[in-house]
């Protein structure tokens, strides 16, 4: 049985139906570096990403600069900022590498050809792809684009990438291994348009190797 409560609907003693404007339930922030047509680098902050095996799938809006860059160049770097970098990520938030700025974004975004400079970030060369890595990020995944297809509801693309090389900062790796030290890696999370860090470890899965 359900009871109407204004625009929400109570569906049990503990839950109600809601219509949130976004479904950003909480995923890590990724700074995607791609190559612009003139050879310069763009940085796209995003968070609709997931990994399985060596595949990373990205959800990217059609109106940004990342989609045309990925369609043309077929490569990128997925740079993962730690929580303490949130203010620099937010400096990138109102910027786009797209010129001219699409009408739908014109009131809130401005074109910025130098996103590294605007955010105070440092480019370093990659090893298997042409876009640079972001030095300040502790984890870099160099990746090739495998497929790009339209999302069913329109307005965005689903980009499947294959990771070719992983770089991890010394201070987040377990010395002498390829394991990330989860006591020292603190990814920046994007939760319903707010930035969060992670809390203390709660436990480990039976498959954990560290
Ligand atoms: C923390 C954060 C997460 C975002 N997540 C996404 C996302 O998952 N997909 C997307 O298309 N845009 C996302 N955006 C918006 C893009 O960053 C924005 O459209 C930006 O203008 C893209 O830059 P570009 O046009 O230079 O590629 C996010 C922005 C921020 C700040």
UniProtKB/TrEMBL annotation:
InterPro entries: Flavin_Rdtase-like_dom, Flavoredoxin, Split_barrel_FMN-bd
Obligatory cofactor(s): FMN
Superkingdom to which the source organism belongs: Bacteria
Signal sequence segment: none
Keywords attached to this entry: Flavoprotein
A GO molecular-function annotation: oxidoreductase activity, acting on the CH-NH group of donors, NAD or NADP as acceptor
Flavin reductase like domain boundaries: 25-198
One Pfam family here: Flavin_Reduct
SUPFAM superfamilies xrefs: FMN-binding split barrel
Family: Belongs to the flavoredoxin family.
Protein name per Swiss-Prot or TrEMBL: Flavin reductase (DIM6/NTAB) family NADH-FMN oxidoreductase RutF
Protein source organism: Actinopolymorpha cephalotaxi
